[in-house]
Amino acid sequence: MPGERFEWEWDETLFAGAAAYYDRGRLPNSPGLANAFEDTFELDGQGRLLDVGCGPGTVTLPLAGLFREAVGVDADAEMIREARRLAAERGLMNGRWFQRRAEELPADLGRFNVVTFAASFHWMDRALVAGIIRAMLERPHGAVVHVDNRHQDSLAPDDDHPAPPIERIAELRRAYLGQNRRAGQGIRNSSPGDEAAVFRAAGFAGPELVVVPDGRTIIRSADDLVAETFSLSSTAPHLFGDRLSQFECDLRRLLAAASPDGVFAVRLPDNELKIWRVATP
Ligand SMILES: C[S@@+](CC[C@H](N)C(=O)[O-])C[C@H]1O[C@@H](n2cnc3c(N)ncnc32)[C@H](O)[C@@H]1O
Prior knowledge:
This protein is of the alpha/beta class. Helices cover about 30% and strands about 20% of the residues. The model has no long low-confidence stretch (mean pLDDT about 95).
């Protein structure tokens, strides 16, 4: 198994083939996300947003209307193409999209009022990127926002449909790809911790926490769960090589066995915004 020989380091296959599945497959953020940003930062449509590791614009697109300009940066070319396509489909006129690694910023992009990281910071050279971003913030009020999910004890859906069979999907992944979680050409079994220490060392103060409530129960089809699986770095399509169709067949068989009518229910966690501001000496 080639992935078991070395640890993860960034390479361009990390999300290869995942972008097309992302918008459909990933769980939505809270519908209150944009209002929470508007209220917290008293946005008046004049500032600039930078979304780092924007993927297909998951956070950039719903927030763009609150800013004069919204800039999405992602290392993956397919993600940037998908963000452009979704922006056009949604009639968004003030978005700009760049294929760049976060480590290559500031890349002449200028200063920003709000910089977001959503499910992306852990993939980066965090100390380097935090330092770069600090210098890209408007002073004195610019802020970095880490958009996260709030971990909640009771997220079991409370209606008649089963929850997605996450553990059985993980077993199938292991049967195809081995015990380790694959990431690009390497492996990555855990995410780095202590993000707060990284931000503090880079000269930020915080975090202030804002909870954006959700708790909706949504219905997911087997197609949605297949899309979710292929949107993840650990089961991105490129990892399966010529066994991709076989994996998809086995996944669909597993999902059909778990819910004969092909429908699953998921209770959505709240979002949590962790806000970091430049520390004043
Ligand atoms: C899990 S996705 C999150 C996408 C989006 N922010 C969201 O909320 O769904 C992580 C994204 O980070 C991007 N990424 C990973 N390492 C990166 C880096 N060093 N610089 C820029 N983007 C990076 C990946 O290409 C991917 O699109």
